[in-house]
Every structure is written in structure tokens, then in C-alpha cells.
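Lab notebook page, bench 4
Experiment: in silico fold of construct C2
Operator: M.H.
Input chain length: 190 residues
Purpose: comparison with the prior construct
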Amino acid sequence: MRAFIAIELPREIKDSLAKLQWQLKSSGADVKWVEPSNIHLTLKFLGEIDDKIQDKAGRALEESTKDKTAFNMRLAALGAFPKLKSPRVIWVGIDQGDNEAKAIAKELEQNLEKIGIPKEDRPFSSHITIGRTRSPQNREKLVENLTTLADKFSQENLEFKVTGITLFKSTLTPGGPIYQALKETPLKTT
């Protein structure tokens, strides 16, 4: 099964991101938009794993979060990889909560490597993917919309409390991926 570990987003945050996607869609660009119900912040993509590794990954998740406290996260930026002028991945970044997410991702990397899941080549970057371009169709208009909306987006106050980290199963279907929570590990509350 395909699996990943992520921070689940509350419904109201997903609704705000769906609105942002709708505004960007007016560009007519050829973008595969992430289904709003599937939007999350990935901490670690595990790839194809079996049941035995799933159990070990669940224990690695528990180990990585056992001393971690719930924290606030705020969405604060709109951008694209590799850069705004040539977007391939359209993302929303965070400011508040970035250090906490990075600390959990780092521990996950270390604990998952011990069970045979390779470390990432690139350093972890806290971001939420909302779309991926499929072709250069209407790219200029998309870049224009991204630039305009980036300024407005940074003014929004999209904040929520991260209270747990979840191990998900991802089943690929012709209609898009279906995510199923396999294990949620709560963070300590003060």
C-alpha cells in the first residue's frame, strides 16, 4: 500500500484553500488541483509499504511525537516550485508552526530510516500542495493570478491548532487518490 504521514487540516482551512483554488482556476491553466477534502501537509511520504512496515511506521510515528506538544499553525504564503514564474507545484506555505513541523519531520526521518525507509534527498519544507501544472497552457495568466493572490493571501488569518499527526493510506483510483487514516498520534496538550 502507498502511505504517508501528514498533518490533517480542519474543514474551515480546507474550505478557504478550495476558494483559493477556485480563484486560481480562472486563469484557465492546465492544473491538476488537489481535491479540497484531500489537502494536507505531508511530513513524510513513505511510498509502497507492507503491513509489517505499516506497524513499524506507526511505532516510529509514536516515538517521533511522544514529547511534542500541540501547536498553532498559520498559513501565510502562496507560492510555486521551482519558482513563481515557472510553476510546477502550487503551494501554500506556513509561518507560525514551521519550526514545530520541521522538528517532527526531522524526527520522523530519523526514526523511519531505522526501519528501512530512506531519508529524503531534499531538506523538509513546510508547505501544502494545492495543485500541479500539467502543461504550459495559460501559464502567464496563472503566474499573474498567483502574483496578485499572493499579496492578498498573506493578509488572511488562516490559523489552526495542530493536535495530532496521522499515518495515511493512499489508494490511487481513476477519480483521484482516496486517503484513509490508519493511525493518529495525538500531541500533548498543556
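Observations: Residues 148 and 154 are 11 Å apart (CA to CA). The helical segments are 11-25, 51-65, 98-113, 139-153.
Next step: discuss at group meeting.
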